[in-house]
Amino acid sequence: MTKKLDGRVALITGAGRGVGRAIAIKLAQEGARLVINDLDAEVAQETAHVIAAMGAPVAVCAGSVTEPDFADRFIASAMDQFGGLDILINNAGYTWDSVIHKMSDEQWSGILDCHLTAPFRILRAAHPVIRSLSQADRQAGRQVVRKVVNISSMAGMFGLAGQANYASAKAGIVGMTKALAKEWGRLQVTVNAVSFGLIHTRLTAASADDSAAIEIEGRTVKVGVNPDLLKALEAMIPLGRAGLVEEAAGAVYLLCIPEADYVSGHNLVCSGGLTGI
């Protein structure tokens, strides 16, 4: 049976763990050929092995999305390995929280660079490739709709105390999504965003103290949510629980399939029914 994404070339940042990994696996199950990225090369390779074991073609482009040369390397990986670019998902990210009067310039710029500037650079690097592919499709009489899905958050829609940097970046990615939907429509590219509510990942796991942390480019960043706060947050969700990474991936997948070829400039909220925070 033909799969919905057979032969499509999909690029996903931050695909070594969590939601990004689930997205990569979901798209591979539906026939996509993948270029996956993660800051941690070892983790990226582990995900690639899982995908390869499924029989799906996969390439790895490891490294930080904030590196000045990353965008060009990422797009080149897709063209060198698979000769195409059909789906681009800007997913890589993390949180680095503090109330604004205690937030350093490094905290502010670090989150903006990862969540907003990096996707901008990737999309800018992708444009000449997509334009060339679109022109070739037109000359051959083919109708090919390509997809961009940018990952945002309900924090960008409603704000969240302690996350002025993250909320600003995620609001910005929605604005960029809507602008690019208007710029790239003529190229037969749909550009959408998915804003997640509370999803179970290592960043949102219950943590009773301040010991939970991750390493990001030499920085130790605290993660996790106080168990009492996590319980209160879940009680606010109409479905009564946080989402699974597979469910988050499903929302992204919806915007990648042919049935969504006329959906563009949209911000899809994946929140279990939560409409505000």
Could you please describe the fold and organization of this structure?
With 277 residues, this protein is α/β, with parallel strands linked by helices. The protein has a single domain, classed as NAD(P)-binding Rossmann-like Domain (Rossmann fold), CATH 3.40.50.720. The chain contains 8 helices and 9 strands. The chain has helices at 18-29, 41-53, 70-82, 105-140, 154-158, 164-184, 227-236, 245-254; strands spanning 9-12, 33-36, 58-60, 87-90, 146-153, 189-196, 213-216, 219-222, 267-270. Helix 2 (41-53) links the parallel strand 2 and strand 3. The N and C termini lie far apart (42 Å). 41% of the residues are buried. The model has no long low-confidence stretch (mean pLDDT 94).
Proportion of helical residues: 40-55%
Globally, the shape reads globular
Fourth-level CATH superfamily: NAD(P)-binding Rossmann-like Domain
Q: What profile does the largest beta sheet have? A: 7 strands, parallel
In the CATH classification, which architecture applies?
3-Layer(aba) Sandwich
Order of strands side by side in the largest beta sheet?
3-2-1-4-5-6-9
Mean pLDDT: 94
Topology, number of strands: 9
What is the CATH T-level topology?
Rossmann fold
Give me the number of helical elements. 8
Percentage beta strand: 15-25%
